[in-house]
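Support request from a user on the community tier.

User writes: "When I paste my structure tokens into the form, the page sometimes reloads and wipes my input. The last time it worked, I copied everything first. Here is what I submitted, just in case something in the input itself triggers the reload:"
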């Protein structure tokens, strides 16, 4: 009889809660953490760093959650990503694709990756708290992701 193993998932929520809707990523990650789903770990940070690449090797799946302005007509988007080309680095920002590429190249990580972009509207104000529309988008994104995680985690795979 084959043994089955549930996949492990890391949710990285990043952004600056002191910049209004830029705090959507950390807010989503905090909700996932509160759900306490088995096999799902959470990391909350202000930004992605190259150090996150090391963490990825321990997981089957990573979900990068951040605020976005790219989808003002929908509350969020969820898409798979491939390792990107780390052509340049800054100590202030690294893309999810670059983190994934580093994890693969340096640590032989074979981690599936997704980006969950939650639509935000105000990023310039130095103030805490989400705008009402961003808060509504967050609620929808949290519902989607917790359902997705529960479904994903119950799909057992042979180990």
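"...and here is what came back when it finally went through:"
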């Amino acid at each position: 009889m084959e043994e089955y193993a549930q996949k492990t998932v890391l949710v990285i929520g990043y952004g600056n809660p002191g910049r209004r809707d830029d705090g959507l990523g950390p807010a989503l990650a905090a909700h996932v953490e509160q759900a306490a789903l088995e096999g799902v770990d959470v990391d909350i940070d202000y930004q992605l760093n190259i150090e996150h690449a090391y963490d990825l090797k321990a997981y089957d799946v990573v979900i990068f959650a951040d605020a976005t302005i790219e989808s003002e007509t929908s509350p969020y988007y969820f898409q798979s990503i491939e390792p990107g080309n780390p052509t340049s680095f800054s100590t202030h920002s690294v893309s999810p694709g670059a983190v994934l590429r580093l994890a693969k190249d340096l640590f032989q990580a074979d981690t599936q990756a997704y980006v969950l972009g939650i639509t935000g509207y105000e990023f310039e104000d130095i103030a805490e708290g989400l705008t009402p529309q961003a808060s509504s988008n967050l609620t929808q994104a949290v519902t989607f992701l917790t359902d997705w995680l529960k479904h994903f985690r119950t799909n057992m795979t042979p180990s």
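Agent notes: The reload is a front-end session timeout and is unrelated to the input. The longest helix spans residues 132-154. The domain at 4-158 is CATH 3.40.50.1450 (Rossmann fold). Escalated to web team.
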